[in-house]
Amino acid sequence: MLSVFIVEDEFHAREKLKLQLSQLPDITLLGEAEHLTDAIERINQLAPNVVFLDIELGEHNGFSLFDNLNIKTQVIFTTAYSEFALKAFDNGAVDYLLKPFNLARLSQALSRIAAENIQLAAEKVKIHAKSGNKTYILEQENIVFFQTNLNMTIAQTKARNYVIDKTLEQLDLALGSHFVRVHRNAIINTQRVDNLMRLENGNYQIHFIDCDTNVITSRSGTNKIKQYFNLT
Questions:
Q1: d(CA 9, CA 55)
Q2: Looking at domain 127-229, which of 2.40.10.340, 3.30.1370.100, 3.40.50.620, 2.40.50.1020 is its CATH number?
Q3: Which of 62, 60, 59 shows the shortest CA–CA distance to 76?
Q4: Are 17 and 61 in contact (CB under 8 A)?
Q5: pTM of model > 0.85
Q6: 86-97: per-residue pLDDT in tens?
Q7: In whole numbers, what is the pLDDT of the chain averaged over residues?
Q8: Which of 108, 173, 220, 229 has a 20 to 30 Å separation from 115 between CA atoms?
Q9: Cβ neighbourhood burial of 197 (10 Å; 0-12, 13-18, 19+)
Q10: What is the rounded distance in angstroms from the CA atom of residue 224 to the CA atom of residue 44?
C-alpha cells in the first residue's frame, strides 16, 4: 500500500490525477494542496510515501518543497515542462511525468516505487560491499557517511571505504532516521558527527569522529542539519 499526496494548483489537473489514482490498487490518497506553503505543512505532518508535485505553483516553484521537508518521501513531478527534468532528478525526484500522461504511465511509476520499497524493507539493515571475491556485511552504526563518486556509491567507515551496489536514493529510504541526506551526493550518520563548521555561504562543513574526510552541505542539506540538531 502506498500513501500519496498531490500538490497541484490547477483544479482540473488535480481532479484528473485523483480519478486516475482511484483506478489503481493499493493507493491511499492522504490529501491535496493547491498552495506550496499549505503543502509543506501537511506533507511534513502526514508523511506520505509519494508526493505528486507540479513545478509552477502560482507565485511559488515546486522545487522549494525540497528545502522544507523534514520527512523522507519520494517525489514524482507532474508538469507540462520537459526542460526541468534534469533539475528534478538532481533534487532527488524519482520520476518525471509529462502532462498529459495516461493511466499506464502513472501505474508504471507507482509500481516501480512499490517494488523498490518492498525490496528495501527486506534489506533495511543490510549493507553489502564487494571487494574482489569477498562480500562484507556493514553495520549501519559503523558507517560514517555514504557518498557518490564517479557513478559509484561509497560507504565510508572509520577504517576504510567500500563500494556498494545501492544508490543514495535507495539508501535514503532504507536507512534509520539518524542518517540525513545533506547533499545530493552525500548521506551522513549524525551519530558520527564531531562538529559543524559554518562556511561563509551559510552551509556547513561537517567533521566526523575518527574520520579525516569531511562533507559539505548543500542549501537544502543545511536546512535539514539545522532542523535535526535544532540550530538557529
A1: 10
A2: 2.40.50.1020
A3: 62
A4: no
A5: no
A6: 888 887 788 999
A7: 88
A8: 220
A9: exposed
A10: 13
In order of 165, 193, 203, the CA distances from 196 in angstroms are 29, 8, 10
Q: What is the DSSP letter of 71?
A: S
Q: Which fold has domain 2-122?
A: Rossmann fold (3.40.50)
pLDDT digits (tens, 9 = 90+) for 25-56: 989 999 999 988 889 989 988 989 899 999 88
Residue 156: its pLDDT value, please?
95
First to last CA, the chain: 38
d(CA 4, CA 46): 10
Distance, C-alpha 8 to centroid of its chain: 20
Sign of CA dihedral 18, 22, 27, 28: positive
Residue 63 per-residue DSSP state: G
How do the domains of the chain map onto residue ranges? 2-122, 127-229
- 123 pLDDT above the threshold of 60: no
Measured CA distances, 168 to 9, 45, 74, 148, 149 (Å) = 30, 24, 13, 8, 11
Spell 108-135 as b/e; 16+ CB within 10 A means b: ebbeebbebbeebeeeeeebebeeeeee
Q: How many helices (H) and strands (E) does the chain have?
A: 6, 17
Name the one residue in this structure whose C-alpha cell is 505528486: 52
Cell digits for 231?
A: 540550530
